[in-house]
User: Fold this.
Amino acid sequence: MKSKRKIINDPVFGFINIPNDFLYDIIQHRYFQRLGRIKQLGVSSFVYPGAQHTRLQHSLGAMYLTSEAVKELRSKGHEISEDETSGVMAAILLHDVGHGPYSHVLENTIIQDVSHETISVMLMEKINSEMGGKLDLAIKIFKNQYHKKFLHQLVSSQLDMDRLDYLLRDSFFTGVVEGVIGSARIIKMLDIADDKLVVEQKGIHSIENYLMARRFMYWQVYLHKTSLATELMLIKILKRAKFLSSNGAEIFAAPSLQYFLNNDINANNFQNFPQILENFVNIDDSDIISAIKVWAQNSDKVLSILSKNFTERKLFKTKEIEFVTKEEKINFSRQYIDNLNVSESEAKYFFGQKTVQQNTYDVKTDGISVLFSDGSLKDISQVSNILNPTILSQDVKKNYLCYLKI
Amino acid sequence: MKSKRKIINDPVFGFINIPNDFLYDIIQHRYFQRLGRIKQLGVSSFVYPGAQHTRLQHSLGAMYLTSEAVKELRSKGHEISEDETSGVMAAILLHDVGHGPYSHVLENTIIQDVSHETISVMLMEKINSEMGGKLDLAIKIFKNQYHKKFLHQLVSSQLDMDRLDYLLRDSFFTGVVEGVIGSARIIKMLDIADDKLVVEQKGIHSIENYLMARRFMYWQVYLHKTSLATELMLIKILKRAKFLSSNGAEIFAAPSLQYFLNNDINANNFQNFPQILENFVNIDDSDIISAIKVWAQNSDKVLSILSKNFTERKLFKTKEIEFVTKEEKINFSRQYIDNLNVSESEAKYFFGQKTVQQNTYDVKTDGISVLFSDGSLKDISQVSNILNPTILSQDVKKNYLCYLKI
Amino acid sequence: MKSKRKIINDPVFGFINIPNDFLYDIIQHRYFQRLGRIKQLGVSSFVYPGAQHTRLQHSLGAMYLTSEAVKELRSKGHEISEDETSGVMAAILLHDVGHGPYSHVLENTIIQDVSHETISVMLMEKINSEMGGKLDLAIKIFKNQYHKKFLHQLVSSQLDMDRLDYLLRDSFFTGVVEGVIGSARIIKMLDIADDKLVVEQKGIHSIENYLMARRFMYWQVYLHKTSLATELMLIKILKRAKFLSSNGAEIFAAPSLQYFLNNDINANNFQNFPQILENFVNIDDSDIISAIKVWAQNSDKVLSILSKNFTERKLFKTKEIEFVTKEEKINFSRQYIDNLNVSESEAKYFFGQKTVQQNTYDVKTDGISVLFSDGSLKDISQVSNILNPTILSQDVKKNYLCYLKI
Amino acid sequence: MKSKRKIINDPVFGFINIPNDFLYDIIQHRYFQRLGRIKQLGVSSFVYPGAQHTRLQHSLGAMYLTSEAVKELRSKGHEISEDETSGVMAAILLHDVGHGPYSHVLENTIIQDVSHETISVMLMEKINSEMGGKLDLAIKIFKNQYHKKFLHQLVSSQLDMDRLDYLLRDSFFTGVVEGVIGSARIIKMLDIADDKLVVEQKGIHSIENYLMARRFMYWQVYLHKTSLATELMLIKILKRAKFLSSNGAEIFAAPSLQYFLNNDINANNFQNFPQILENFVNIDDSDIISAIKVWAQNSDKVLSILSKNFTERKLFKTKEIEFVTKEEKINFSRQYIDNLNVSESEAKYFFGQKTVQQNTYDVKTDGISVLFSDGSLKDISQVSNILNPTILSQDVKKNYLCYLKI
Assistant:
């Protein structure tokens, strides 16, 4: 029988091998293919037009890096079986499978209290039952229930292959070269100690560089003020659509999106009603974008103004602020009430506040261990003179007022 | 007044400057922004997952290369005014503005006999009237009605900046490194003779390299058999949707797409009914993709089977053939009739033939002139020993049978 | 008359234009061409085999970045005349012209107390007199005697084009991707305030990234322990050769190198005896490498052992230490005395100590000013939360014991 | 025992693994290390300042590609043992070990009728005897005496890893992007049929692209007219030095170079007198460059003029010609006789003719076989419509007159 082994052209890593039929079948699964219709960086393409890459590309890249890491760890004498290799590769392939389109937006609007990790697990379990249990090990690794803990850490930890891929990939597609990290060097420095993924002593500077590059990408890309404003705009649009819909208005949307506009869905529902999950996996970027263009013609003034501006890239403006006084809020509302002839409650759709915070490294939650030649382990923050814990773990917070300019 | 000058991060060229408000306003125009929702390579992303880049990115890149070419020509003593520079930059920014989503598909299904160039001109004229005639010069250049013919050639000719950008860009995003061309070197070799864009003698090998890289990209990317099959699949889907719609069925679609499913539109209509153009510019990739997912649940068996397979990336298979005999067609039909329980006319939606042909260089239509140091001009095919006209202009044709595997 | 304008292919920046005959003549000057025979990173190629790039390439790259910076500053309304542009470009072209081969080695062995900056000025003045004073302005800028101080800062300061080029270039040729900096972005952020080169507020993160990348390159490349050990080995070889030579031995060397082996040269001599400078500019990497191979056959045991090991890449080993006790030194000596049958004073040539220190940013000497939108200026260390002055300016010091393994 | 496994940073391929001690020891051998002092492209750095990369880097790169090719062939079911893998990697590591500095120059001047391949074998055999026969298999593969012929083809054939590396590498360091080839894709297409390295059918376009890129590099880099002229200049210098030396003049040179200036060495001598080989491996670029600078001060007018001009990059000019008439030669001589006050025989050192020819593909000697899915093999020239044998194998010849401008 001819194997389904395949090679995929990746602009970041060159050729990516799919080493066996098990992984090939996961990649071909409709749940995974759906990630090819969801942009990795959501609204960032409004700021960085190159940022069109999808969650599918990222997942393949993370799988590639995982296979590289496994090779490296094996070459250092750590035993990792073929099944474990396939398992951890499957786990990382599927680590983002629960993401919806414009995740942060959705999680604030049409679904409530359901994290994408939870949905990822649900979907993995569905694929698993379709594949007759072949995903058992992958799911254990993903949930950190497998006895070799370091495998989970390849999928999810401060040193996971997820982050290594997305930093490189987002840097590549946005054109922000400052995010380039030495992923190959970091992988060469990986080792295992006490069943934990650790970094060799000579990798300290590589880790510093990686944390700094990540910090840069946060401020320059992920938390870019125009992206934040665009995200808020999208949230306001979806909230309005849902509000109208729940008040009986007929709002155009593909049926699966319609379903979420018409119903209030929370985590419990997800578990109990399978059609919710089916509807969820049916939604991708295209449904949101296609609907908003239709909403630009809606009779509701709030929905149509916001949707038209969004479609024409007339985005919310931003202003960095300390905080907003009640008075300012009233003044802000006033201009929309006066100029757009809307009510007070409607005026609130045209502006809002976004608070972002970013701390480069948090000893408590992050934990990157450095392995010294004498076998001892220390946290990176103890041995790096720039990753000073008191400095770096201090949250940096910014507040933006985002608003429609009229 | 603060100028609107801006810089855009481009992964291919680094930073792209928008040098003046005129060009900035074009870029901000809703017709141009719409290109950000249309993938440059249409269905190629099914084969090359990196190929998510948009027509907006390509248009900005072509504008950048045009500004570089103008700089080079000026440095060689050719006079090009500020207005002409802005004009040719505007012309190339808008050269693809008339493209719909999945252009080749649309032009074979929901619109008839209307080329995207025709629509580009219509849209330029609409923008021009909105901008009070500021686009007059750009439109003249685009239509080749301006007396300095070489400016048109920067926009559209064998040496235009359109091709230089798309080869580089498509190569970059697909990861097919063989398409990399020396665009900077080619631009350094450009000159003008007899009001024609020509290449200096020492650029002969660069031109050969460029034509060969283009040839490679055709076979490896643009005419990739799986892309062709996917395109055919998409054509079949839209034809079926239109067929059903015209027979009175209620087919889900965003209103603007609906409009084209319900009406037969040709070039004449476009000229005479402004709402057609408005509906056209309202359609982008998202409407097609969003609708097809809904169609996967349609009661019509043909539409639902094709749409479901398309969504789940179960694409048509291909078989290179000399030609298909009548008998083979009947046999092919038979399997669908038998297995899917469809009629003979319905069976035709599940397979089809694609013929592609590509000739690397055609002396009659292409014409790249080489300028020798004695001032004489010769066609590249006369001076290159590999671009032998009898060899290279011979059409290479391939036939593929594309079909749903069941 | 045909201009000598030329274009140079640079793997880092693509094509570099030489915009006028003045700059072309400098590049063609024998003093400048000599930089093409001196590796930018000296002995680093023993660790990073790709690091073969020359000081000539770096100087051309720095010239290119300077021309980009001038363009940017002009576009922000700052007046910089054609003469000033050529002047600052000439100054940076020649900023390293006084470097000898393996600079740090030479400055510790065959010449004494003469910095390469001093020699650069001497050589600029010689070129200037050959060119009839055309370099007057460039020299003024280089010496910081020109009234527009920011021009000097483009050549020499925390934000100079020298550093931007060398970081990028050294990163490119060593393959250490972590050194990649956003030079184009930094240049876009440059401005002038109070006749000082400053960075716009939104460039803060770019500067942080740049200082961190520089820090990384220091530890990973410039201060790599094997490079340090190799440098020490080279110093020991040259010291021995000079010692033998001054004791009357006939040591093979090209005459200009011979001259420095036979004579003790200090800064005063340089000023007073023109033949010293002539001999100095006649020496490059090839003389050192060629001589050492001959010395490997020398009858002096110390010189031949060290030279043979150097040539065969049997480099000094390193051991990080706090400090060396007198006892350890004696023990160390002992092994060479015993095994190689050398005297106590000869034994000292086979080992030594190297101390390196690096501080990322020093407020007192470095000074990068950030320009805020309200026109105020602040030092980067006051506004960056990671460039905390107490942390970052603290010197990091390492001691290595370097020794021949026997 | 700690293994000597090491990783080398390569700017072209990232990290290169040295998988075992055997290969590590070869790399550390003084014969191999010497390649780090010989530029891969000889005088090309006079035209492309980035072309400083060494034969050592190239050999490591070719080793890396060989290991990739072996991996690929194994994955297609071809058995290649660990010993064979190490053997073929050792063979390609050492394939260029017999190169002297500026090979083409040396082979025309100070050595006669000795190809670098012959010297490579001699050196491999010397290393082999030092290593107790461990190189037996590698030498068999290199000499094509091993029964698995395809292993030799990885080292030397139209599809060898030598060419794949040098095209990519030379393209990278010169900055001539047009030479970029899809080495990874070509390797993915490799297979074995009838014990021969072949290319899968779907690799036809990749091979076309590769041959075209190679053709481009020939004209743009390897046969660049200024490189040719510089090479001729170097030949004239060495010939003159040898002439003077053989006439009893004392010509400065490092002893090993001196040896070749003083003695006429041919292939027979090499075999019979071991000191010849020892002297040969002692010479590298540095000896040539260092000596020429000294010769610039030589009392012989011919030697000093040529050497001074070479050092100061005042290179021979070129003129493309059909042929040179006897009369022209006399006229040319005349100007040097008159202006430089030299004799007729001396005048001949100041000019000369260079003939270059390049054919892209020669069916008779090249032979790239394509494997079709039905198992049949055809030569690429039969199946590619651009690699038409009558066109492409026709030699393209150019004649240049190269001369010192006075």
Observations:
- Residues 317 and 405 of chain D are 7 Å apart (CA to CA).
- The longest helix of chain D spans residues 225-246.
- Chain D touches chain C through 46 residues (CB under 8 Å).
